[in-house]
């Protein structure tokens, strides 16, 4: 979705408005599956940073990304912002898969641990988010970021706030691991 | 550094290698001032996401950014990854300003709180990072993200690891606030 | 409130029920001032761990504690749980001071950085919590832990959920620092 | 290890010095197994707060605790400091099990999510910590807190610093989950 020549890239994205309207009418899992199949537009930031939703099921979402030079910080490795963006996406979507139509969420806080440097030699990374607890008002999730050899580059947790208008408290997915 | 027409942007960035070599030879504050003045290349990710270092002094760094549609998530607001990227930059650089030449650092973990949604109507945001503690092996910093009316959009803390080859433990900047 | 002889202490605490009932009827600041003056019982855990509320005002609460051998971990320093308990108290109470009668809160998450070891030689510690943002549903706060020479031992942030039954969203205390 | 009559408890603990000396001479797992078997003294804070190490193996440690009135905050539930103390213990010990004799660690930061209130009706809680990454200088771990019906009350992550004098970087336990 972006063409690279030398140190120039053409980034194209789609109007996020139709997708965000669909998000209100569909259950989270249905909505995210439509994005994964390309039937609804991806997030503009996914086109900007070149990552995409590769797997989604109830309580789980996986994003893929190939780190490149345009993700670099000034000290010679990929900027931590890339991993944060992938973690926020994977965990937010993992929570979203658990929400019925008409129930919205927002990320309240995010905590990321970086375990080793990422470079343009790292190759494709997968960021797997999993819901831990989805309650009436609060949901939490966790994520791991690893390469194709299953080497771990970082992990994260998040807290989301859930907006259930008029709906009762419920609790899902909180069994012992 | 990026031209926008409709929903297409041409992103251009510079080779990060010369800058990262300079980072090894200069003290952190000197190095970051050279970036702020445009004498050394900015981070490629700063060109990609359109943010820049606007102020830097000992223990403090401020980045500016105007949130745009290409920063959006699929649910109609700016993706949390933008704030995370700004926070990581501001706090990492605030720590970096306290390090002499030859001393490197890496971010170990980052914790972000999001207080209100950011949209393309929000206007210019400033992300101010401040070092809290710079010790022999560990440094910590905090940051705030606010708009031009000083409305607060989020705050963050970070832990960095410091690599002092052969140098003694020291402690700076840890007085009561 | 506890007598120490050799490695034995008698811990006495008060029924927390009357205090928690008062908490529902009083505004947060009024309630906490009554605890600080000794007119309402302190938390049982404060008697157990020997810490107390020493200062409280709108948006700010300070707890004091003298670390002792009974706070130790098995590896020769004070257990991190003591600092966490002080941080949770100071930040929760800082938020509570901003809440009117009838509005409850609960701590959703807590993040603590430990900067240096605490021992029984450290002397009296003060843990100062300050509200950062108090919104309609979410509040955040931060805290610092320092000794009488203003040496910093740790810092923390927290997210609380606010339960305003039927009350409108409001926003306080979010100016730039 | 503490006798309760009405709202008074006699707390007795042991000198932590011999145990902390043993900690330097034994590998972490061997040391913690000696504590679990009662051959080395538990942490004084474990006697104060009434919790104990119930299981320990490579990369994993479980603490048990029965929440009681003396753990209460002033607003009618168990204080968050109890969960934090259990999390810090379980995660620190999970990391410690991976360290050979002569290698020390310290907790740099801790992040806790609280999912539901704990009361004296909750019954026995188990806090299970697991190492995620044990590197040359940094280790991370996670933990869950649940009751005997496997209901989840909270979860946490931590970052520890490892002090390997003269030893090489190594990496353990970082496979994909």
Could you name the key traits of this structure?
4 helices, homotetramer, Thiol Ester Dehydrase, Chain A, 8 strands, 23% helix, 6-stranded antiparallel beta sheet, 37% strand, alpha+beta, 177 residues, two-stranded antiparallel sheet
Describe it for me?
Four copies of one chain form a homotetramer. The first copy, chain A, has 177 residues and is of the alpha+beta class. The first copy, chain A, has a single domain, classed as Roll (Thiol Ester Dehydrase, Chain A). Chain A is 23% helix and 37% strand. The first copy, chain A, contains four helices and eight strands. The first copy, chain A, has helices at residues 17-25, 28-36, 44-49, 80-96; strands spanning 2-5, 8-12, 51-57, 60-65, 104-114, 125-134, 138-147, 152-163. In chain A, the strands form two sheets. The first copy, chain A, has a six-stranded antiparallel sheet. In chain A, strands 1-2 form a two-stranded antiparallel ribbon. In chain A, a hairpin with a 2-residue loop joins strand 3 and strand 4. Chains in contact: A-B, A-C, A-D, B-C, B-D, C-D. The interface between A and B is large, with 54 and 54 residues.
């Amino acid at each position: 979705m972006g063409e690279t020549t030398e140190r120039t890239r053409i980034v194209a994205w789609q109007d996020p408005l139709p997708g965000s309207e669909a998000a209100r009418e569909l259950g989270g899992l249905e909505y995210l599956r439509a994005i994964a199949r390309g039937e609804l537009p991806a997030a503009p930031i996914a086109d900007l940073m070149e990552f995409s939703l590769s797997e989604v099921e109830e309580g789980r979402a996986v994003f893929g990304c190939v780190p490149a030079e345009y993700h670099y910080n000034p000290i010679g490795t990929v900027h931590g912002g890339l991993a944060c963006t992938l973690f926020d996406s994977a965990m937010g979507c993992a929570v979203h898969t658990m929400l019925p139509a008409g129930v919205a969420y927002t990320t309240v806080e995010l905590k990321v641990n970086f375990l080793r440097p990422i470079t343009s030699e790292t190759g494709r990374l997968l960021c797997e988010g999993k819901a831990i607890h989805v309650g009436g008002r609060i949901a939490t999730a966790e994520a791991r970021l690893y390469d194709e050899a299953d080497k771990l580059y970082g992990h994260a947790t998040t807290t989301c706030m859930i907006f259930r208008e008029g709906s009762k408290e419920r609790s899902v997915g909180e069994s012992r691991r």
